[in-house]
Amino acid sequence: MAARVLVGVKRVIDYAVKIRVKPDNTGVVTDGVKHSMNPFCEIAVEEAVRLKEKKLVKEVVAVSCGPQQVQETIRTALAMGADRGIHVEVSGKDYDSLGPLQVSKILAALAKKEEASLIILGKQAIDDDCNQTGQMTAALLDWPQGTFASEVAVEGDKLKVIREVDGGLETIKINLPAVVTADLRLNTPRYATLPNIMKAKKKKITNVKPGDLGVDLTSRLEVLRVDEPPQRQAGVKVETVEDLVGKLKEAGRI
Amino acid sequence: MSKCLQAFRHGVCLVTLTAPGHPPWECCTAVWFNCSNHENRNGGVNRKLDNNTSQVFPFPSVLNEEKLELLRELLEPCSKFFEEVNDPGKNDTLEMVEEHTMQGLKELGAFGLQVPVDLGGLGLTNTQYARLVELVGLHDLGVGITLGAHQSIGFKGILLYGNKQQKEKYLPKLATGETVAAFCLTEPSSGSDAASIRSIAVPSPCGKYYTLNGSKIWISNGGLAEIFTVFARTPMKDEKTGEVKDKITAFIVERSFGGVTNGPPEKKMGIKASNTAEVFFENVRVPAECVLGEVGEGFKVAMNILNNGRFGMAAALSGTMKGAIAKAVDHAANRTQFGSKIHSFGVIQEKIARMAMYQYVTECMAYMVSGNMDSGATDFQIEAAISKIFASEAAWKVTDECIQIMGGMGFMKDAGVERVLRDLRIFRIFEGTNDILRLFVSLNGFQVGKLKRIYMLEKAGMSTGLTLQGTVHPELAQSGELYVCILTDEQFVLERVANCAIDLYAMIVVLSRASRSLSQGHSSAQHEKMLCETWCTEAYDRITQNIKFLRSGTSKQIFKNLRAISSAVVENGTVVAPHPLGF
To answer: Electron transfer flavoprotein alpha/beta-subunit N-terminal domain spans which residues (chain A) (predicted)?
Structure first.
């Protein structure tokens, strides 16, 4: 039975916002843009809180890496039912180059420090779509992983995970401690109610530096350029089937 | 320009000043003064003026960083809820708030926004409440009224006048929405004339309870509520004379007391999702502990409750207008006719600009009043009334123009705007009809004793030396102007005087806010300056016209004619002039 669950939550640009690329093509515009919790992270938090409500887990700890603003995201997790939060302070250039490798090192170190027996993450973030952090964290800890989870059940000291894979659904049983990444159909996250937001204000968020965890944030990746996807070209209308075949031949498609 | 002091039979004094009619005007400023009357030996009245502009300048900023942060956090889930869960069209068609939506709102905590935290609510200040109510107004006025009837007036009496036991007994369940509240004042024969209500609560000989009998009409949440704030006459014996008089008392009445029934939901033009019903009280035993406030003080309780909740209306409607403007602009920016997008046409531009100004003024009023209330002001009844009048009429005009801009599309149900217009119509009627509130504004403004005066000051020749220089941003110096009106007791005059007061307050609030934006160097400051200057220029003209008209000889004749026309039509039961065709 898992005593403590670590849930990673990432602050990303809100899904409804129209993304714009910076004029210098080094990244996307984030200043003054609406941010919120990564939707898959919301699902991860919801699952952790449900486990706690079923009394299968004692404490849910929400973790986020980034500058001061990520505290909002941690607060949202607290309002959804997490017990306390950990803010790993990363800012400036380090934050710009923060990726799955660095985050997974941080989560692994925290899992050991906090003696967590379960880590639940979103399967991927909607800004970088990496889909790597869960897997890397499990590897660093040498823990089993249940990724793309659409259902999680505790069975004694093991976890039954139903995974959504291309071919359908795969059911696996893994030992605890383990890493699980949440897929879309795992659950429907609750709305943070206003009274819970008020209560969340009293919950604790501790600040930690990556250095304190012995983590090296150096990135092995360098972003060369960010471009918008090519504009969608207008379509062409044709009158007859012959015209259609002709156009397709012209375009070298057939 | 002339400056004169006039004393009237009512003992009301006004300082009348007129500004020169030709540009460029001198720098003038708008000020609300508190002043007191001193009778002098000759039976005239001297004014002692206190310059107290602190209520309106600078624009109130009552939320510290922590409270603002909390408000931002609260807004998020509410916004999501209204975008994803609440379906205003469905609510309108079903003529009720969908069950799961109602449940969701209760779980969200939306039913106890201003209940103290230790009793299970969110303990929000008026300004924080205003911001949330603005969000609701943006999305669904039917839900807005359901929530407002519950907490803005339904149980507000318990918040304002309840004793410790009453608060502890009722507020926790009201905060979670386990029980819903309703405000019961209006009766079939008592609407605007609220003091004439006939419901009666007779005290028992032992003094332990009252027996309540009466019927109330058009009660929002009447069919849903468990807790009612009811106003009824109670016979009271005057200790000195032994005479028994009826005075109104406020009671907390629980449906569970027995004898409380309600009629079916009324079929309405708008806010269909809100439940409106008759409520009947038949020999209801109300324990004496349920008296709210003092026995016999019920009328004051009623008026204060309504007064206290009024700013909420302006806030909600400023949200509604934002929504209408967004829809109108979206249409105007995409609709092509005669080879151009219609927003490039002057007629459409004027509509959009005026809509923006109305919304800006309403927003300024809402947050000025809530800010003043949060700062501890106890004397905001006139401003609250003005904000209700202005907001309800502005919202109607704005939404009406939105439909006009959208053309045929605006008239269609699916566009979602016609529903808003239907919802808005009641706002000029309930919670004090705008007509009554206008009389209240002008009469209250000229009450002897503790008064607020509207002054027009002209920079040159101003012996009072009072000016807003230094409080109004220099860029706006040209725009502040004030007026004074001559008062008589005719309603025709009072209405126009009230309109001047409303325009004047509107000028003050926009000057205040635009000044703040300019001093804070907001990127929108120049745009706000334009809104402010345009509004003030036109308001000044309106006020001058009104005063000119009131002072003219023609006004007396016009009023006489209006009276006569009305009498004749009433007597005839319909129009008097025979048909042009003779039949």
So the answer is: 25-217
Look-up of token digits 């605007």: B192
Distances (CA, A) of B458 to B31, B466, B501: 12, 10, 18
CB A37 within 8 Å of CB A73: yes
Q: What is the dihedral of CA A175, A179, A180, A181, to 10 degrees?
A: -160
Residues of B with a catalytic annotation lie at 431
Contact of B524 with chain A, judged by CB distance below 8 Å, is answered with no
Give the ranges where B335-380 is alpha helix by DSSP (H).
Answer: 346-374
Nearest chain B residue to A72 by CA distance is B73
B196: enclosing H helix or E strand: none
CATH of the domain at A44: 3.40.50.620
Q: Which two tokens stand for residue B96?
A: 């009720």
Neighbours of A15 (CB within 10 A): 11
Pick from A194, A198, A202, A203 the residue to mutate for testing the B interface (most B CBs within 10 Å): A194
Which regions in chain A score pLDDT beneath 70?
A: 1-2
Domain that holds residue A195: 4-251
Q: For the whole model, what pTM was predicted?
A: 0.82
The answer to whether A191 contacts B120, with C-beta atoms less than 8 Å apart, is: no
Structural domain count, chain A = 1
Of A76, A195, A201, the CB nearest to B109: A195
Extract the residue ranges of chain B whose pLDDT is less than 70: 1-53, 445-489
| Rounded alpha-carbon distances, angstroms, from residue B371 to A106, B61, B62, B368, B380 | 46, 7, 6, 5, 11
Residue of A nearest to B76 (CA): A192
List the 86-115 stretch of B: residues with Cβ below 8 A of A.
104, 107-110, 113
Looking at this predicted complex, what is its ipTM?
0.73
